[in-house]
Amino acid sequence: MVQSGNWWKEGIVYQIYPRSFNDTTGNGVGDIRGIIEKLDYIKSIGVNIIWLNPVYESPNDDNGYDISDYQNIMSEFGTMDDFDELLAGLHARGLKLVMDLVVNHSSDEHEWFQQSKSSRENKYRDYYHWWPAEKGIPPKRWSYFDVESNAWKYDEQTDAYYLHYFSVKQPDLKWENPDMRNDVYTMMKFWFDKGVDGFRMDVIPFISKDTTYPELAADAKPEDFVAFYANGPKLHTYLKEMNDEVLSKYDVMTVGEAPGIAVENALDFVDEERKELNMFFHFDLMSLDRDPDEVFTMNKNGWKLSEFKKIHTIWDQAFANKGWGSMYLSNHDFPRSVSRWGNDHPDFWRNSATLLHTFLLTMRGTPYFYFGDEIGMTNIRFESIEEYRDINTINKYKQLKSQGKDLEAFIENEKEAARDNARTPMQWDETEYAGFSTSKPWIQINKNYLNGVSVSTQEKDPYSVLNYFKQMTAVRKANKALIYGEYQIIDETHEQIYAYTRTLNDERFLVLLNFSTESSVFTLPSSVNYNATKLIISNDRVKDDKTYKEFLLLPYQALVYKLL
Ligand code: GLC
Predict the structure, then answer these.
(1) Residue 267, exposed/middle/buried by CB under 10 A (0-12, 13-18, 19+)?
(2) How far, in Å, from the CA of 114 to the mean position of ligand 1?
(3) Fewer CB within 10 Å: C terminus or N terminus of the chain?
């Protein structure tokens, strides 16, 4: 059944990390005018919803995820006038803008926190989570970015500890306080009244806390904490209230970032009747190649295609009748998709990058691309800690160093796992600094901008990753079956080929993806009934079989057929 009027179901999202997209002031940092300059480019690649990482005022302890003023633009990025021009420029081109909503925590430099920490009697005291020191050491809480992984920080001024799931400069807001919630809703309306089209909600499942702060198991691991953080007692009460007070009044889209949420609970967030969110990002795929006990450590055994398929099949089923999914392979918190799920060796880079594009654009659920994916940008794999800019890598390094752990092994791990892999500047052309800036960028540029990984070289090459991306976005937009059609996996245990059909009414598509460095002949089981096939798109040479039953797939080849 086609649901109509849901632009965010039919849209293709393009995520922009503003610090790394395009610098127009020559200070080595991307800015809003840089995005304005590239609006025609953005339009040309076929995406239609822009998700912008935080551009609000921030001391940048965590690159804008530590907000000190929710209603102002970070001066490094420009002004509110620049922002208004960006929004108008997007709308003039029929593009939507989704902002980042970071309200699990603020910056410690936010006025609310400054007031809150000033005295126990201050009217903002209860905007944050405080534990008075006279009650002793607070129950253990794990922190993502703290050098000691300790989420409680002692503050002398009022002799109390405050809670910070992320860095010490990111104190957690107290959603249990209705005044705080109202201030957040007012701020959201400010952006919606400007015409913003939605929010991506940062770690949204973490907002509700058990304010009795119970002791957790002594041997609890980071993953146990994440699951505990994500299942606070009043989470759905707050989301419903937010929907009722704010979201329901506008035609906007919402997508929650949802670490710790299992597929069994998926519909609690996105079942339309519950009136909470439209979509969320689950983390099952993001954990697939990681150590089960350590979210940031790569699993030495790699990952299996059958597991990759299983995750996507289970999540597709979760939203088969209600709700809606979101499909992503990368973002600013994870390595580059072609380096992680494809193969960035020169022999396989092009095909695997385009195979991944084919995958995201032929699955049900809204596809999310991260800037640079369209040209197949790869991991930079820094050799030393000095090259890193991310607090996550830097503080983990400090921690391991103080514990006398193996730092070389850590740097090796970060080459595949680090968030900075995805934060290197956009590669526009082959001039110095890749056309991103006229001076040394805030983080190094990947040298492969000189070897074909740039917009200007790829625009000229009909066979490029970029041109395939454009063709593939057009294919999705032209075929409702690729958006709404039922998904049926074929041969789920095959470790080389991912094969599935997408069916809507009397239209059926077959997608064949060879996730390997070896050619393979795939034979369709007789249960898939059809008379002939019509090729829709392929990223490599195609050898059509006269029986229409056997398909030769070259390394990382992607094939999309219509079944007739
Ligand atoms: C989310 C963001 C990430 C940030 C963290 C804390 O996971 O995506 O970049 O560091 O929240 O705000």
Answers:
(1) middle
(2) 22
(3) N
Ligand 1, atom 9: closest residue by C-alpha: 333
Dist CA 51 CA 218 (whole Å): 39
Place of tokens 């380096």: 339
| Cβ-count burial 199-222 (b if 16+ within 10 Å, e if not) | bbbbbbbbbbbeeebeeeeeeeee
Residue 182 tokens, joined: 């109202």
Amino acid residing at 57: E
Q: Which two tokens stand for residue 495?
A: 């470790």
Coil, helix or strand for 118? helix
Whether the CB of 62 sits within 6 Å of ligand 1: yes
User: 166 in ligand 1 pocket by Cβ < 6 Å?
Assistant: yes
Tokens of residue 116, six digits: 């809150």
Residue with the smallest CA separation from ligand 1 atom 12 is 65
Region for 70 from its dihedrals, namely left if φ exceeds 0, alpha if ψ lies in -120 to 50, beta otherwise: alpha
Nearest to 100 by CA among 138, 151, 55, 148: 55
The widest CA-to-CA distance across the chain, in whole angstroms, is 80
Q: What's the rounded mean pLDDT across residues 176-193?
A: 98
Q: One of 202, 223, 276, 344 is an active-site residue; which one?
A: 202
* 257 a catalytic residue: yes
How does pLDDT run across 2-25, given as a tens digit for each residue?
A: 444 589 999 999 999 999 999 999
Supply 555's token pair.
């390394």
CA of 548 to the centre of ligand 1 (A): 47
CB of 202 shorter than 6 A to ligand 1: yes
Q: Is residue 85 annotated as a catalytic residue, yes or no?
A: no
> pLDDT tens digits, residue range 49-86?
999 999 999 999 999 999 999 999 999 999 999 999 99
Q: Which residue's structure tokens are 């940031």?
A: 296
Q: Cα 198 vs. chain centroid, distance in angstroms?
A: 15
65 lines ligand 1 (CB under 6 A): yes
